Amino acid sequence: MIPESRPGSVTVRPFLLKPQRMNGLSERLLVSHYVNNYGGALRRLNAIRARLAKLDWNSAPTFEINGLKREELIATGSVILHEIYFESLGGQGDNPPTGHEEPTPELARALERDFGSVATWRAEFVAMAKALAGGSGWAILSWSERMGRLVNHWAADHAHSVPGAVPILAIDMYEHAYHIDFGAKAAAYVDQVMANLNWDRIGARYRLAIGEAVEDKLFRPYGAPVQDEATISAEELKAALEADERHRPLLLDVCLPVDLPRRTDMLAGASMHAPSALPRWVENLPRERPIAVYCICGFQVSGKAVTELRQRGYNARAVVGGITAWHAIGGATVPMDISTYEDLPAKG
Questions:
Q1: Is 228 helix (H, G, I), strand (E, B) or coil?
Q2: Which stretches of the chain are DSSP H helices?
Q3: Sign of the C-alpha dihedral computed for residues 173, 179, 181 and 184 taken in this order
Q4: CA-to-CA distance for 187 and 196, rounded, in angstroms?
Q5: Which residues pair with 231 in a beta bridge?
Q6: Is 335 exposed, middle or buried (0-12, 13-18, 19+ CB in 10 A)?
Q7: For 21-64, what is each residue's pLDDT tens digit?
Q8: At what angle do helices 199-209 and 62-87 cross, to 10 degrees?
Q9: Is 192 helix (H, G, I), strand (E, B) or coil?
């Protein structure tokens, strides 16, 4: 797991799905949801926790305590449920979800045990989600130690749950989760989400809930560096950029030519480069400065660049989650500048 950037703060989790490679869920929808709704909840939670840290508990009025603690609960629930939602979606690596995958064998056996069959569980879960259409809330599959079984339940206001239960799958049924692609057709959105589930990660969450070990790589962005010293969180980068100039990292924006149309902005002071041209621009980099490398979502594009830079002796780190995670924490950007980009694709 990614460490917190400062005491009391909660750091952003990166996309594990590739938003441009999904079945029937658009990149525009997924990125807007991640940046504006998940990121908004995260920023709100950290702001609330900062207020609470300064509160004089002996003299604060009860309405202020009640209001802040209620909002903290709602924001915390929103952050965690959004993370479970996004982690439950997407294919493997560069491959989109097949739409035909079934639960992992261990999870399938648990669903059969607790619901009679996978088909029965699916029918109940989907119906529960669709019943929230026109309203607001979450459809959740959780493991309840007390009940000794998996349970389907809905949650409103990001704050309702089965006490002590561990969510392993969540579908966001608030309008922001689907209106860009589906308008008011919430039921069609539910069907499309079910065709984009990543059962390996959902199965891993179930194993974690019942106390088993799982592979950490299932919860790392595809192609990102596995060594902690080769990565930097968006929050750590923000703090580093606010430091004095001697310790401020050099910013490299690496982007595939095919992905340039997906981009509109970049971090101030960054230079944009084609990853394939690295041998042509690498020698111009200062060896005495730390280097932060980012791409769109922090997958293999920045991961490969950082690996090669570190092999050449540079103190390079990949930004976890890329510029998308930077957007989610509210990081400032400037319009994209491709004046340093090599081998621009021909127009027409």
A1: helix
A2: 27-32, 39-53, 62-87, 105-115, 118-130, 179-182, 186-194, 199-209, 234-241, 278-281, 300-311, 322-328
A3: positive
A4: 15
A5: 318
A6: exposed
A7: 999 999 999 999 999 999 999 999 999 999 999 999 999 999 99
A8: 130
A9: helix
